[in-house]
Every structure is written in structure tokens, then in C-alpha cells.
Amino acid sequence: MSAPGPYETLLVEERADRVVVTLHRPEARNAISGLMIRELHAVCEQLEQDPKLLLLTGQGGVFAGGADIAELLERGRDEALQGINSRLFERVRRLPMPTLAAVDGWALGGGAELSYACDLRIAGPDAVFGNPEPGLGILAAAGACWRLPELVGESVAKQALLAGRNLDAAAALAAGLVIDVVPAEKLLDEAHALLDRMARSSATALRLTKLVVDSPGAHPIADDLAQAVLFEGQDKRDRMTRFLEKRSSRE
């Protein structure tokens, strides 16, 4: 993997028909920081100008352990209304060519929502999808509250969003969240094989098919409004502070 350009949190490899992006914050389980958001926007801009397939994965056996809690703790109403994460994930969702997330290890919170924004997901045996946001005093406001029901149905989505159920690889496959579960050492090879299959189709047909299948939604606004209320609450600050203190005591 190479990382051309100013990227600090991503490894980016450009091929003739696809771009491979690896989330790369090994010190934080690839947690999605503000810098990573900005760098992913730059990748999206490139793919909007020069449409290609996108393969998104994580470094070190983890997809993304969530959003950066330390940064979330400091965000308030105004930041929630900006939709910092949700606007990026919606941009990923609306990229002109198909997108694929190759997930092994944790895909939690914002990491799970980033994978939900992709058109397809393929998983390694240790993949775990989860949205524990209510435990931190907030909601999964970057797409999970409406994308996940569309992907797996209302019942399974509520198990994840309300009851805190994590979906392991087998459960994700049974729910239709992932297209396949493959050995970890073959995950990227199988992901590229899937992209190879799509690349053999007409690029124009793929683009138009994606446009027809996708439908616009009003949810990001509703998500941002709800998150704005939660971001201002003391409960959120207390929960996130306890989380950070507990993590610091283990280090």
C-alpha cells in the first residue's frame, strides 16, 4: 500500500479501475477522527471527478473501532448540526461507482456506519458490527438509524441499535449485511475478486443501476437535530469522560 498525497490517516492505492483505501490509525483502532473525515472527503472528491470502484478496509485486523470519542466529547450542538460524519458517509453512499467495505475485526459506531454507507460488505471471520452509541449518551446519527433497517430489517436493526447486540460475522451473513464471510488471509483477495466481477460489467450500466437503486432520504437532517440535543447534554459528557478515564487507566 502506498499513501500518495497529504494523507496521514489513510493508505491510498490507485489502480486503473479502482481505488483502495485503508483506514490507518493503528494507535486508535482506526477510530474515525476529524482529520480522517477530511481526508476521506478528499478521496470522495477524486472519485467524483474520476469515477472508479472503491475498496475500503482497515489496517491491522480492525476496520474502525468507532468515532474518536475524545473528539466527540468536545462536540456540541453546532457540530452535530454540521453533520460532520453523516455528510461524509452520505457522500460515500452517493459515489458514482460501486463501493465495497472489506471488514475484519471491529466495525463499531461510526466505523459500522461507514461500512453501512458502502454498497456492499464482505467480512472476515472476526468481523463484528455494532452501534453502542446510546451507552455513551448519544445516538447512531451518521446513518445507522435508517440505513441499518434498510439493510437487515427493523427487528435486527433494533436489536443492534436499542439492545446493544453486536453482529458477528455469522450473524451479519445471516442478516444479509455482508455478501460473504471468508478467511482473514483471503479477505482482500476475495474483495478484489468481487470488484473484478463488477469491473467486467459496463461502467455506465453500473452507474445508472446504482442511481436507480438508491433513493434520497431526509434522514441526515433528522439525525443531526436529534444528535444536537444529545451533544449538549451532561449525560453525554459524563459517559464519554468515564469511557476515556477507564481507557486511560488500562494503558
From TrEMBL:
InterPro entries reported for this sequence: ClpP/crotonase-like_dom_sf (IPR029045), Enoyl-CoA_hydra/iso (IPR001753)
The protein's name in its UniProt record: Enoyl-CoA hydratase/isomerase family protein
Coiled coil: none
Top-level division of the source organism's lineage: Bacteria
SUPFAM superfamilies linked: ClpP/crotonase
